Amino acid sequence: MKNNNKINKINNDSNDNNDNAINRLIVIQNHLSPGSIDLARERENPGFDVQKMKWLFNGGKEMFEALEEAYKIIQRDPELYIPGGHPFDMTLKEQRELVMKQILRYQKTRQALKNDPLLCRALELTMCTYSEAFWMRVYVHDTLFCQAFEMFGTKEQYDKWIDDILNWRIIGCFAMTELAHSSFLRGLETTATYDKTTEEFIINSPTLESTKIWIGMAGQTATHTVALCQTIIDNINYGINWFVVPLRDVQTGKPLPGIIVGDLGSKYGRHGLDNGWIQFCHKRVPREYMLMKWSKVTFEGVFIPSPNPALSYITLIGERFYVLYGAQSALGQALTIACRYGCIRRQGVNNEQIMDYQSHYVNLMPGVASVYVINVLYRVIVNQWNQATKLAQTNQSEFLKKINDFHAISSGLKATLTWWGSEVLERVRRSMGGHAYSAYNAIGPAIADWGVTTTGAGDNFVLLQQTVKYLLDTFKNIVIQGEEGKGKKIGSSVVYLNDFQKYMKITQCNLSNENQLYDLDFTLDIFTWLVIHKLNEAQATSSLWNDNQMSLIKLAELHTWRLALYEYNQELKNLSKSNYNNSNINNTNNDNNNNEEYQKLLPIFYKMGQLWSIHLIHTNLHLFLEIDDGGDDSNNYYFNKNQIKMIKNIYLKMCKETRKIVIPLVDAWGFPDFVLKAPFGRYDGDIYAAYFNTIKAAPNCFGVPNYWNDYIKPFTNPY
Amino acid sequence: MKNNNKINKINNDSNDNNDNAINRLIVIQNHLSPGSIDLARERENPGFDVQKMKWLFNGGKEMFEALEEAYKIIQRDPELYIPGGHPFDMTLKEQRELVMKQILRYQKTRQALKNDPLLCRALELTMCTYSEAFWMRVYVHDTLFCQAFEMFGTKEQYDKWIDDILNWRIIGCFAMTELAHSSFLRGLETTATYDKTTEEFIINSPTLESTKIWIGMAGQTATHTVALCQTIIDNINYGINWFVVPLRDVQTGKPLPGIIVGDLGSKYGRHGLDNGWIQFCHKRVPREYMLMKWSKVTFEGVFIPSPNPALSYITLIGERFYVLYGAQSALGQALTIACRYGCIRRQGVNNEQIMDYQSHYVNLMPGVASVYVINVLYRVIVNQWNQATKLAQTNQSEFLKKINDFHAISSGLKATLTWWGSEVLERVRRSMGGHAYSAYNAIGPAIADWGVTTTGAGDNFVLLQQTVKYLLDTFKNIVIQGEEGKGKKIGSSVVYLNDFQKYMKITQCNLSNENQLYDLDFTLDIFTWLVIHKLNEAQATSSLWNDNQMSLIKLAELHTWRLALYEYNQELKNLSKSNYNNSNINNTNNDNNNNEEYQKLLPIFYKMGQLWSIHLIHTNLHLFLEIDDGGDDSNNYYFNKNQIKMIKNIYLKMCKETRKIVIPLVDAWGFPDFVLKAPFGRYDGDIYAAYFNTIKAAPNCFGVPNYWNDYIKPFTNPY
């Protein structure tokens, strides 16, 4: 009831000054908390239409309204809603159970809503936003497992399995990593040995180190897995392929003979996800359980290789783009909480809002800007990927050409965004003082949940090396071998290498007025200069790969952030043109009425892009200064001291400017209070009472502890 | 049994090559795991005496042997040892209970050992190293609560309470922070109103926001608290003072009338510590319950103020130095685990040890060096502080003069070290890939436990502002007002300001050969140049405090690290002289036989100091380049490009060099396996089997989950 009121309130946001004056009077009249008055004042002059931004940010008016409906469904349904409002007092066992309960209810709800696909999609998105562990568990089956059949299965295989998969009559997991092997897939030890006599593969874990581990849903849930194994025929190893392996009896849940499977137990975070491990003991599966879209094994045992070895990890390319949506959700929620708290919390001699301290807003505002950048980037990149995968059906060779580029992009984005995500979440935690150490303000659990993204699904260091290897190889082709401009098609992420010579000729930045730094083309140009010069350094030393690894990894990061700036910049240009309907961030075509209104939001997107660009330049300032052109004057620096001053100055200035509208900026993401779960993130600002109620509702808040007589009384009553 | 064997093994470390050759043969003979062979090889040529380093690192041979005995006691005693070896499967409730069980057993054990004070002290240190939550809980009573009586109580008050405190007949906590007030103590709302008629103070929490919160041991344990309250007499507020307030009935554990107290519930970490909250409802205490060493209130209600307001937070100065010991323990344990794992884990085409990847050793080696620096620094600073506090008894005015300096030092060290600690722990986590996400490898819990140190006991941002304020004030006195060299005594941490003019005259670094960077005096000089120039920038703009807050905070960090380098450097000089017995890091005088042996370890300490120095310079490289001298040539940079190259080069080189002895370096800290708790940190290198055994021993590893029939079977058996 309370929260429904809140949603209505959110809908009533308005930048109409009269309304706000009246609202303010009502606030005071009702003797609301000081926090409520603070947030009301922060909302007085957003300078943009928050409601319209909510629509645009969330994929259009129609989509946003569907999301609101979906949130209402979750909040009302006792099997979707987390009992008590949060999972922070639940044991690991209870959280594992809760999430499966939610999944069952969610699937039934979707079946009931099947005639409303928009609402179904909205329910999926909102549940994933509501619960990280729910998301991961559904994702393992619906995405990783299911896509394995799409990407690696023949049409016959796909048709055979897909109905059971879509209806969860079998529940799947994705077994790649082994106890002692992860990033280097060719080193995996699990074997699938072909037995001609029975036309079966024998799946086997030859050593302890080959135990499949960290497999989501293997712990308690999955009835089947796809497993990456070395394919052995007549004692010859033909390399890794995917095999379907049944794990548990679908009636009883008991592991099948030949399968030893267990739960991984306690983790840093994501307690609702049952990560597990699997050992195969001579488990036999029919030959057709090898997924044979690319590589094949005939019944006689002849191996037909894949046209492109990269195809065996193709599922992971698309998967990695989800990290953008995940970042938007995790960072968006944490920043909503921290920014609202920062505008309510007061401290110091003049009882200032702590958000007005420079150390506060400079730490948080780049994070806020990044959420807007990620929001746009996610939609742009996913659209590009979707268009590419359509080619897989119609023009395989064209699709295969694009794979390397997408692999490099997705690896780079996954690594840079997950590192940035960890940094933002930690900044958020520190910005909230001791109160973020309470589990009930949701930040600690968010840090722990997010943690695995930096090491799981490809270690970031390894991924960035793959990105930089692609970059250097392309560089060699088009610059050193001089194939640029000869019509050779290169991946879209590296097109800027065609301008290599142009950037190499520039030795000093032409920044003369700090206002130039508001120009996204100008800052993109500065950043591109850095990437090109780092690349030039790298290619000279890349034969000493390991001795330059740190530098190469940094180059991959810079290359990726440059791409993000470029795509964001391009998309804003699309948005500003009349052909807005063709832009990526408009997901629906039913929103024509709002086109003009949306274009009024452009200045906000520009502000966010400006802050993000200057943040990137400021953060990497030392790299600009370290670049060694090897020219005659070895003391020629790209930036002179005056320019450095301008950059530092504008950076602080942009943080300060955007701080003024921080509450409207985070409100516009549209996370309802019950999703945030943190009393300190409440929309209405009445934070202390809500927090205190949460504490008092926790188990064992009051009362004498059960161990008083055993372990305390012997002290206090020693005689 | 197993673990006892391990300790014997540790004692048998030797750099005798014959022994090692034999050991190696035995290793191979016994078909030990590949990890065991890897670690044995890493231990072959340490280049220093690991056993002697263990002694020196841990306070001398005698102390180290006492620590080993104490570890044995813990491991054997079923009430001190954590059942199952780790707390990572326990609920919050179980962990709270476990720690109190340990405390009772620990106190009884100490009583039994009272004739062996060295072993008692060793038991205290080892238990604190073994369990963070144990440490915190004991620390709240033994240090915070107890010291309040020492620091703020009159002799009569001290004598009245101390016996009950030392014997835990009352159990105390330390109530400072309030729900809406923390760093700005003058803003606290809790009142102590004097009632002349009864000669009592009425302790009251006037608002929800004034609830005392985050109070360690208040949740379930404490029978008493000291509380910081506004002192009100005849409607006049005389400011904050400390009051003793009984909380719970010592017989029954029930809260007393006028006290509402509860547990704070779930937190990010430290589940064994019962943080709580307290509301006072007109609770009356006798006038003598105000601690009156400095401020006093007579029975007629006359307020006699304290000679120095800083005295009211004096407990916190000494407290903050514990963070150094805490950092040594937390970082040391995490790095031991990560470095051993890094030398066993193999990945890549050539199956390299991942520790040989540049991205790996460059991330970890500065952390290893920092543990050695912190170890020395801790002992130096604590010795200085202990000498100062002795003055409190004999020469109060001299003591008061030193307080500001120590306050600035302790604030700076607390902030910089806790931030660095978080960074190291996160680096460690990421270096271990997915396996550090398992709670059983102890890194996730360590990150969560450590987290509160960055915000608790004084927010780092606020503390660094206090440090920089002291620095700027001193600067104003001795440089701007020209009082340097006139014999005015200034705090030891700021003596270098006397050389302000000397450093201001230097505009370019005189680095011409990269070997100069191995000279600790030389690198200290470079770093001092940076601090002086940042200070010069800061003083020019310090009137705009908030607009330069980020820069001022950075200055405080640099100033603090400079101090650390200086003190470390000085101490190595002491150690290298014949007057070694006067050095700070020799805690015992019974170790004369080992003096010469210890001096042979000096090269290792120098190596660690060199790496740490170059790490600091490298990390802050951009700051050197940003410094604006305001001279005619605004493009004069302190480092030229060639010098930058040398710094980057030497940094990577030192990381690579020290990586070669990384296992001996971490072995020398002497953490036993059962304290590390992480299978991946095992001394013997047999990590995978141990890890897998831990997983299999966890609750609910095997078996059909309890929710199969309710939430999974409806999917897999839909008809």
From TrEMBL, chains A, B:
UniProt keyword Flavoprotein present: yes
Cofactor: FAD
Keyword Lipid metabolism attributed: yes
Domain Acyl-CoA oxidase/dehydrogenase middle residues, every copy: 173-280
Ranges of residues in domain Acyl-CoA oxidase C-terminal: 522-716
Start and end residues of each Acyl-CoA oxidase C-alpha1 domain: 313-472
Keywords, ordered alphabetically: FAD, Fatty acid metabolism, Flavoprotein, Lipid metabolism, Oxidoreductase, Peroxisome
Protein name as it appears in the record: Acyl-coenzyme A oxidase
Species of origin: Diversispora epigaea
